[in-house]
Amino acid sequence: MDIWEKLQKKEVLDAGERKAVCNGLMTTEARMEALILKYFTEEDFREVFQRRIGTGLIGGKACGVLVARKMIAEKLPEYVPVLLDHHSWFIGSDVFYQYLQENDCLGLRERHRQEKEKFRDTEILKERLRTGHFSEELENSLRQMLPYYEGSPMIVRSSSFLEDGFGKAFSGKYESVFCMNQGTPEERLEELKEAVRRVYASTMDESALKYRRKWNLLDADEQMALLIQQVEGEHLGTCYFPVASGMGCSYNPYKWMEHMNPDAGMLRLVVGLGTRAVERTPGDYPKLVSLDHAQANIHTTIAERHKYSQRQIDVLDLSEGGVKPRRLDQLIPLLSEEQKRLVLSRDSDAESMLYQRGKYQRVFFADCGGLVGRTEFMQMMRNILKMLEKEYERPVDIEFAIRLDEEQRVRINLYQCRPLQAGISEQIQIPEGVDQELLFDIRCTSMRRSKKERVDVIVWVDPQNYYDCPYARKAEVGRVIGQINQYYEEQDKKLMLLVPGRVGTSSPELGVPVSYADISQFSSICEVAYSEAGYRPDLSYGSHMFQDLVEADVYYGAINENSKTRLYQPELLKKLPEIFSKICQAYPDQGEIVKVYDLSEYDAQLLLDAKDGRAVCWLRM
């Protein structure tokens, strides 16, 4: 009798057999294996085995969420009643290999591994993955699984061997695809197959390739398992969404208020789907919570809290299909009174002004205020995060969704957990009396570990010229930065990027639209305020880009026009050699907007003192 028969027949497994089951079902990575063998019982392995489609491992993302849930059950059993079922199924990694084989992709993929950067058939391989056919065996397995999710939307998520483990997190590099799961069984099956194709094809997306290149993983055998989960939420009209979602970090590497304790951790909360908790969204502001001072607010007036709140909610539109943004006022009538109290606040000042004009109207804004006010929930999240950090022996982040049960109690669905990479701080002494050589000197606007790092190149986007640039051409600035990024890919240079407003926004009037692939070579990035054109930094704590920057040990800060900025002297840059024309000959007109300053003849340094929350760029001219 082999181990799989013993597992199915509920036989007791010895230590060697449990290890073999773990290595054949979940992971071969030593540190994750140790956690699984510590917490998993035969029944846990059996449940995973029964929900696995095909053979092979279930991948990093699936292991992460299952292990986190087991840790909570063992270490914090009082919170088990608060956890909702994750309703997960798994498509094993061998299915991906079979898909590659059946769709004539193996040869191309092997060439890609061997040729690395020289591989020129990326689009051909991606198209074959995107349009491939499925074996009859796989189709039948997917068809048999579908009744489990009857009537409920699903999400197909990547769960590669390299994701969410103790190596690199690959945050947001591969696609996650929502399935509305409506219509006839055949329509639902076709939607699910299309989602699987999209996730498989995303292994060849530019951001994923650049990420693998950055960490010397282009020749790694990146095998893709899939995690299928029920989307947490409720049917409200033609929409489906949870009342709130969020992400949490057990250690907050960036302080946005003086009195915060980074060890307490932080949450980033949104109303609706969690897509807005992990992605940058124009004109919207998620709720940031420091778990040691949950109700402390950087915005002191109701008007400010309303201004910097969430205006659009991401939902699944079951009639149109897909994730759709909806205005808050469209969804408020669909919420129960208790849900409103949980995630909405009222602007009493605006209501008073309307009343004076003879109009009585309740004015709501979305800030998850009621949820933040639930002390027991905030304490639970802090306890869970610190326990996970202790067991992983490093900081972690999680993603979750929230719903109210029939008794109006807050319940959470934990659907992701991953360890973060942590650097060791240095002892930094920032010199005094050199103000004339400081590009900037800022405090309490984003800090990670203390370190000293050279600066070889500064890319500066002129805020006024960017503002004056026609709207239709603003996206070109992002492409220019991407070209500069590409130019320095093969060079051992430390690059700093200074941009007006937000970096990574999809809305050019708020800042510069770039993806991680456009800025992967930069070791420091600053968002710069420029009130004359309305540009305002808004550090995207908790987003996938934020995770990329943390993982890559990138300094990510804000140069504001307030007391946190002691000095900002961009005029000093004009004394440095400017080399844009040598690098970006394809975009000569953008030379007035984007400047590239060469500091190779100087001993310029970025100095970070985490203890004082201070960041200084010393040009040493």
Beta-strand content? 15-25%
Q: Give the tally of structural domains.
A: 4
Unreliable stretches (pLDDT < 50, length at least 5) are: none
- Please tell me what the overall shape is: globular
Strand order of the largest sheet: 1-2-5-3-4
Secondary structural class = alpha+beta
Describe the sheet with the most strands.
5 strands, mixed
Fraction in helix: 25-40%
**First CA to last CA: what distance?**
75 Å
Instruction: Please tally the β strands and state the result.
Output: 28
What would you report as the Rg, rounded to the nearest angstrom? 25 Å
Number of helices: 23
> How much is the average pLDDT?
87
Task: Summarize it.
The chain has 621 residues and is an alpha+beta fold. It folds into four domains: 1-50, no CATH class; 54-66 and 85-230, Dna Ligase, domain 1 (2-Layer Sandwich); 242-315 and 327-419, 2-Layer Sandwich (D-amino Acid Aminotransferase, Chain A, domain 1); 435-618.
Describe the structure.
- With 621 residues, this protein is an alpha+beta fold.
- The protein folds into four domains: 1-50, no CATH class; 54-66 and 85-230, 2-Layer Sandwich (Dna Ligase, domain 1); 242-315 and 327-419, 2-Layer Sandwich (D-amino Acid Aminotransferase, Chain A, domain 1); 435-618.
- The protein has 23 helices and 28 strands.
- A hairpin with a 2-residue loop joins strand 6 (234-236) and strand 7 (239-241).
- The protein starts with a helix and ends with a strand.
